[in-house]
Amino acid sequence: MPHVNSPSGDLTALARAIVDTNLYLTLGTADSAGTPWVSPVCFVADRYRDFYWVSKTDALHSRNVAVRPAVSIVIYDSTVPVYQGRAVYLQAVAVEVPAAELDAGVEVYNRPAAERGVTRLERSDVEGSAPYRLYRATATQHFTLDPNGRDLRVPVAPSA
After folding, report:
1. Left (φ > 0), alpha (ψ -120 to 50) or beta: where does 117 sit?
2. Please, which contacts does 9-13 make with residues 24 or more away whose CB atoms are closer than 8 Å?
3. Name one Pfam family in it (predicted).
């Protein structure tokens, strides 16, 4: 993973490396009253903009997305020393992937299945009477931490 030790470091490359090397993101949701909830979910990123995961429809975060689609996400490297945090922070809009987009979403989710050690997803696993659904969060803003160690978020750009 790239090490950034100056403001001129490539923060976009750092952010992409964090996304590329992690299996889980922490998803922040809120219910209709604004009560927050966070959940770790196994994810797949598509172009560093769309983040897919599979969850049960009755999971609290799934119910929250249904009533309040604005979410926050953090993906972080938990292996670095204390106070050397490397993380990507996202503001996003989440949805259950609609039926018309489900084939494409399943294809994206399955691309790195072997490398992640997960079972391939079938469309039938996430539709009809199946208890699971495929979700997608589309990032509207990307941030990482200031490379000088200050608790300051610095915007980074996703890929096109």
Report:
1. left
2. 9/147, 11/144, 11/147, 11/154, 11/156, 12/156, 12/157
3. PNPOx_N
Amino acid found at 42: C
φ, ψ for residue 61, nearest 5 deg = -65, -35
Write the pLDDT tens digit of every residue in 111-139: 876 677 778 899 999 999 999 999 999 99
> Residue 141 has which token pair?
């803003």
Q: Which long-range contacts (CB under 8 A, 24 or more apart) does 43-48 make?
A: 43/75, 44/108, 44/109, 44/111, 44/112, 44/116, 45/19, 45/20, 46/108, 47/158, 47/159, 47/160, 48/15, 48/16, 48/19, 48/139, 48/142, 48/158, 48/159
Looking up tokens 């609609």, which residue turns up?
A: 98
What would the pLDDT profile of 53-75 be if each residue is shown by its tens digit? 999 999 999 999 999 999 999 99
d(CA 52, CA 46): 8
Identify the structural domains of the chain with CATH numbers, from first to last. 11-155 (2.30.110.10)
**Is the torsion defined by CA of 70, 76, 78, 84 positive or negative?**
negative
